[in-house]
Amino acid sequence: MDKYKILLVEDDIKLADMICSFLAKNGLEVFHIADGLEALQRVEELKPQLIILDIMLPGLDGLSVCRKLRESFAGVIIMLTALSDDIDEVAGLEMGADGYLGKPIKPRVLLAHVRAHLRRNSLLENESLADETNNRVVTGDLTIDAASRKVFLKDEEIELTSAEFDLLWLLAESKGEIVDRDTLHLKIFRLEYDGMDRNIDIRISRLRKKLGDDSKHPELIKTIRGKGYILASM
Q1: d(Cα 224, Cα 171) in Å, to the nearest integer?
Q2: Which CATH architecture has domain 129-231?
Q3: 5-120 has which CATH code?
């Protein structure tokens, strides 16, 4: 079986060499590009399953690269940044990134996230979330079909990323019941929730926006303060 291809877009050569070496030792085929524009030009040629994308890049910044990639790239995008500004985290995820990790990054943590994303996208396992459940959930005007991995709102298909669908389906499996952040984080990333990671919260925000759910007074995906989230039963 071919190795899974990872594209690392990072202009810090020392960091890039360390990441490439570590991921390669763990069975992944890694390509490194240090320029945002070049990365865009070579994605079709390299056909990676997952892209690790720094925000601060020469040529074209990572946020712009992510936005342009999402016009045609359906794989996983994990963003890296040395910045601690929440705006950059939100912006990256709003533009279609599947995950967000701050620097300095520990190679084992990055590898864990890479494996979790690949596994969830059925690249490390021969079964998918849809195959395991083969089910459909309907609540109000919303229909979530696990077999086709499609979502419809009032019979209009809603375009979700793979990561967004998986999060929505986890809530759908427990429709009308609270699903805590620990459970969501563990099932999606195969990592314990550390109390600081905001990836789940920001994905919920993206889902609400795409589903037309009022972010201030949501009726479909509700926040249960101090506990988690619930997909309302309508």
Answers
A1: 13
A2: Orthogonal Bundle (1.10)
A3: 3.40.50.2300
